[in-house]
Structure formats: C-alpha cells, structure tokens
Amino acid sequence: MPAKTLVAAVALSFASAVAGLNIILTNDDSWASANIRATFTALKADGHNVVLVGPAVQQSGRGGTFVLPTSNITAPGGEFGTIPVGAPFFGQDLQNQNLWYFNGTPAATAAFALDIIAPIHFGKPANQSVDLVVSGPNEGNNNGPFLYTLSGTIGAAYLSVERGFPAIALSAGNNTHRSFTTNTGAKTDPANLAAAVTAQLVTALARGVNTKKQRLLPLGVGISVNLPLFGPGNNCTAPRFVASRMTGGAIVSQLSLDPVTGFPVSANLVANGVNACLNGNCKLPGETIVSATCQTVVSVFSVDYDAPTVVAAPVQAHLGPLFRGQ
C-alpha cells in the first residue's frame, strides 16, 4: 500500500464493544512487522477488542529504555515505508483505525498506548478498560534473565506490569525481520504459527476469568513466553506449552579481543550468577534449553526485584552497623 494511504491524523472515534478481552498489542519490531499484524488478526478472530500500538521503526534491543519523540517522523520514514517523512509522531492506518504507530522506544510506546490511545479507542481510561497488554511476538527468542533486561519486547511488558496491568511478552524463534505485506496468509507462515500459539495462550489465560471482577494476573506479575523455531526445514507447527523459569541454561555475554582486528567480540557464556535460582520453583526447566526444541516455554515473572528474605537477611545483618538508628 502507498504510504499516504496508511497514515491518518488522529481520529477521536471510539471502537464498538467486542466480546472478549480489551487488549493493547505492542512490540519492538515496529507496527508493520509480520508477527504483530498476524497476531492482531488472530486475536481479533477470537473475539477480542484489540488496538495495536507499535513503534514507528524497528526498536529491537532497547530493553526498558524510555525515549519520547521530540519531532515528527524523520528520514527515512516509518518501517518498511509505511509512514512518510514529516508525518506526525503518532497516527493511524487509514484503512484500519485499530492500528497505530508511535515514534518512541517500546516501553515509551506501551505507556503512550495506555495513557493516550486506550482512552481514545476504548472510551475510558486504561485502568478502567484494558484487560491485558500483549507484547510481540518478537522476531527472535529472549530466553533468560540477561535477555530480559535487553529485550524491547519484554521492556514494553514489564513497563505495563509496573503500571499495574497484566502483560505477556512473547518471543519467537524466527528472527527474520519482515513486513506484514510478505505474509500470504498461509497457515504454515511462521508469523501465523506464532500468532496462533499467542491466541491459544491468551484464551487459556482468560478462561473462567471475569475481568470486571478480577485480574488476569496478580498485581506486579507478568508472563514471558518463548516460542520455538517455526517454518521451512522443521515440522514444528503445534508446540506444547511447558511451565518454565528464566534461569537454567541461561547465557550472558563474555568478551574477548579478536586476534586479527583487535576489537572486542562477544560469545555466549552459561554463567553461575545468571542461573542462580533464588525465587520460584527451582525444579522447573530453564526456558533457554526447552525452547530450543518444539515447545513453548511460559515463565511467570515479578517486577519486585528484592531478594528473598532468607538471602537478603545475612547481607543486611552484616551491614548492620550502617543501619543503626534506622
């Protein structure tokens, strides 16, 4: 589609009520990625009221960085040519007013979706209307605590959890960055497979829950999901779900100097610190190992980063002299 047909000025029109959940859908790979558009379609098909608010351009690897726009869209324009240079810093698709872009980092985009777009779309403030924030599916896995801090997909999710909203971050094994226009609609397309698994998870989460009376997730809690590799060359189309934890086989980066160039290079290291099990069920398998197979791992996380009392107490006791009079 020509860029001029995609971008509209803000329209203060309210979406009609749709049975199902009120969902904010976002990501870090841009509003025009194949994964997010396929997921939008799948969630809508399940009867959810979905508004997509994604970054104007690719924002992968930004973590929870919070950067707001200070100008309108600059060169080279929106991702995959979807937004012309000079367009407003946020706007809609003219052909589908449930699709929005925002020229900020993923965490900032999530906040903009909750504070500005949700009242426009749902007709009420987010805390009175939004049942769930879905971030992703990302183009590539985000396994383990190290990637948790780096991923913009997860950054948008934990910003939402910090704001008090139930949120799910989803990351798919397929890391090809591609436009939604490349999706032919085939069920075997990796974007459509990831979307189907996402919709299945949302259905399971919502089953038996009356969101007018209770939350989908406890306050301060979110879910990080890593989907396996889909598509040509493998037969993974309907992976089973596995309860997992972030630690266990997780990696961090280890640096060395390249003997030829002299510049630092990074390699994966399964380090003790990142795999220390301090919280949760230590018997659950680590998501890094399991998601390498045809399985979808589901890890429940908390944004309360305080260490458990049994771990923190000896440290606090050792530092006791510093705390006298507290």
Automatic annotation (TrEMBL):
Molecular function terms from GO: metal ion binding; nucleotidase activity
Occurrences of domain Survival protein SurE-like phosphatase/nucleotidase (ranges): 23-232
Write down the SUPFAM superfamilies for this protein, in alphabetical order.
SurE-like (SSF64167)
Q: Which UniProt keywords apply?
A: Hydrolase, Metal-binding, Signal
> Which top-rank group of organisms is this from?
Eukaryota
Q: Name one Pfam family in it.
A: SurE
Q: Which N-terminal stretch is annotated as signal sequence?
A: 1-20
InterPro entries per the UniProt record, alphabetical: SurE (IPR030048), SurE-like_Pase/nucleotidase (IPR002828), SurE-like_sf (IPR036523)
Family classification: Belongs to the SurE nucleotidase family.
Name of the molecule in the record? 5'/3'-nucleotidase sure
The record lists the organism as: Rickenella mellea
